[in-house]
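Appendix B, record 7
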Amino acid sequence: MSSETMKTMAAGEAPPWPDTRGAHETREETARAARKTLTKAVLTAFFGFAIDVFDLFLPLIILMPASIYFRPPQLVSPVLDSFIFAVALLGRPAGALCFGYLADRLGRKRTATLTMSGLGACVLLTGLLPGYQSVGMLSLVGLLGLRLLTGFFAGGQYTGAVTLAMETCPLDKRGFYGGLIGSASNLSYIVMSIFGLVLFHLMPPVGLDSAYVQWGWRIPFFVGALLAFGFHRYVTREVEESQRWLEARNANAEDRHTFARLFSGMQIGKLLQGFVLMNGVWLVYLVPGAIMPTMLRGMVHLGPAQTTAIMLVATLTTFFGYLLGGLVSDRIGRRTAFVVHAILAGTAGSFLLYLLARLSADQFGTALLVATAAFFPAGLVWGSGPHAYLNERFHTGNRSSGYGIAFSFAIVLPSFYGIYQHWLNAWFSPHDTPAVLFVIANLVVIASALAGPETFRSNNLDR
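Structure tokens (predicted):
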């Protein structure tokens, strides 16, 4: 201790120790800024995902009762309903390919705003379409064209917003935030279903001249467009660009992983493995999500209101499956979580689907419990980290492209689940095919997960 310090202490004054308060406050401010940036990035992906699913299911829930507005009387309605939904799915791979490339070249944030503004415009224009009675077949052509464009922009939305969130997340919480982002689809489906039920109650769709068929169906489309434009404004003003992408952009050209390299050497192996994995993951979701309502109506013989109630409860419960699956993947790893949860879903979940098909209409309470328990493992599989895992598989220079292609292209084959059920009917009872298809879907997840490496804690998002 110096003589000056001793004199100061003897005089009753505080010693002149270095003031570290400024450094401590700076660290706290930096931590707060990082948390704020993370929150905004995750909210961007969450609400972007929710808006996308909201717009995706508009034809199934909202347009289906009003399809007579767009079609000639002789066109069978179920055929039109399925085609309107399918055409949006066909646009998604093209959107993922195009906007994935742009997200790697122009940035995650710019791509997220571009795709959401395009999505909002398509949904708004759909809500303004005239009917068949006014413009003939141009009404149907316009509807199909706008649904195709909606799918195109929706497929690109993932490549910017989700990748931005994953690149911003801390290493040990990427799985949880990925599960949270994925759970937005469940909440969006619930909101859409309730929205539809309220509209059907207020203005029953009972014919071409009914208020719902003439203009009521437009309300959810206008709401969807407002949400998309509001999302665009929020991202533009509040969200920061991914620092990892900015660092990669400033790197030397030879250190960057270009779009072309994604289809060569080891990169295409990563792409194919992720593609096969997501085929299984999508089918795991579609079996309970799309086939279960048909089972409840056609096998259990429940009414529309009972079926809707069960699906709402099951979907809400599965929301927590997403979160739990993500948390588990942050503890035991993405690949291990996929395998463990797919084994659980493929055994217990399939057995519960087998039981569900054998219940009767007077067993509503049992059907509710069995359906909810069967759906929950699908949430665990989805929460195991497809968003985190796929983003961790690719380098920064082609991460959006790789993630977008593997994620969006994989939805095409599982969407033909009805055909696969028909094929399985040659070997199994129609009451058994949902359970069998669920087993197959989970086997695909297990095999493809084991075929790839563990990405957890590899920190390859820094590359």
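Remarks on this record: The chain has a mean pLDDT of 83. The radius of gyration is 25 Å.
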